[in-house]
Amino acid sequence: MSGTPADDASKLAAAEALVNEGAAEAMAPRGRAVAGGGLLLAGVALAAANMRPAVTSLASVLGEVRDSLGASSTWASIVTSVPTLCFGLAGIGAPLLARRWGMSRVVGASLALLTAAMIARVLGGPWTLLAGTVLVCASIAMCNVLIPVVVKESFPGRVGLATGLYTTAMAAGGASGSALTPYLNSATGSWRLSLATWMVVALAALCLWVPGTRGHGSKAVATPKGERRSLMRHPLAWLITVYFAMQSTVAYVVMGWLPEVFKGAGMDATSAGALLGVLLLIGVPINMVLPPLVTRTRGQSGWALLMGVLMFAGLLGLLVAPLAAPVLWAVLIGIGMSAFPLALVMISLRTRNAADTGQLSAMAQSIGYLIAASGPFLFGMLHDVTAAWAVSMVALLVIVVVQTVVGILAGRPRTI
């Protein structure tokens, strides 16, 4: 997720590139960096588990929330666009805040804000929920940017273990938010209570994070920045940026609207939410094994084609016969969403040095997420105008085609 639920081990590689370029100095606490321990590792896992449920839980009951509040599909489209917009802007805000107060304090404050915002957003009407969701996603975005750097700096001898735990918890959290919220809704009889329940996970993460980062001191080591050059005029950099933007657009449309599409075809809300959970769970094992496989091939065009074809097949099935094989469509879409770690791997493979990797990562993710923010909004707007999902789905299929073509071009074995 940022973009898909799937933020995986490759994201850590992108964070490492930012460290090498000098961003770590800006993100590190002054005179005090967190040192790894069992309590911190548990805090990292629980913090990662909070990076998706606040988004996927709302998506799974979005129709009921909209109807209950008397809101329009346009409002729902804005709500589903908030996560990607926040993720795109976080790359600017997170380093600045971390330079001022330190990574551990910013993450702790973000978890506290996340806990409060998940309660506050369900206490009022549609605009209260929208404002609360902005705060929720801003909090998640801060953690999204900073926690991979915490993992790298705090567990240098256990990066594999910490990263595996981190990515697994993140994917499992997203799947749980989607799959369990409809059941919580049925059990409590209130979508407000079912959404607010997820603050317990954020509070638990905060309770572990604070003691886990206390009393560990070490000075951050600055790295030489070296010679820099702008990548904004390089065609390959823009190909990768567009690829990142297209796959993020598809991923966040799917996470935001898939349950509604299934419900529009006649499926009950519980089953529709569970299918989104299945889709997100598919990414857990794939995101762990895909990056090593991708790096062993000379080019990544074939992988981009494979992900595009699987995503296209799943979405086409959802458009043509949504209830004929819904589990199959969800599985195909879930595998196709592994274009996210593929995009992150290509950022590293298409650059010659750490400085260029850091620049390309910042360019692709910030611009990519900001572009992707319009996807869920426009998807919902098309439905609002046409009173059906067909036009929205066709538009999404066109985006997948663009993603695939651009991915094939970006995956050719060359460097910037």
Can you describe what's shown?
With 416 residues, the protein is mainly alpha-helical. Helix content is 78%, strand content 0%. α1 packs across α17 and α7 (103-120) runs antiparallel to α11. Mean pLDDT is 80; it is low at 1-35 and 216-226.
Helix content: over 70%
Helix segment count?
A: 19
For the termini, the CA-CA separation is 26 Å
User: Major sheet: size, sense and barrel closure?
Assistant: none
Which structural category do the helix and sheet elements fall into? mainly alpha
Cα-based radius of gyration, to the nearest Å:
20 Å
Show the helix and strand layout.
Blueprint: H1 9-21, H2 23-27, H3 38-49, H4 53-60, H5 62-69, H6 73-101, H7 103-120, H8 126-154, H9 159-188, H10 191-196, H11 199-212, H12 235-264, H13 269-295, H14 301-320, H15 326-336, H16 339-349, H17 354-372, H18 374-386, H19 390-410
Helix pairs in contact: 1-8, 1-16, 1-17, 3-8, 3-9, 3-11, 4-9, 4-12, 6-7, 6-8, 6-12, 6-17, 6-18, 7-8, 7-11, 9-13, 12-13, 12-16, 12-17, 12-18, 12-19, 13-15, 13-16, 14-15, 14-19, 18-19
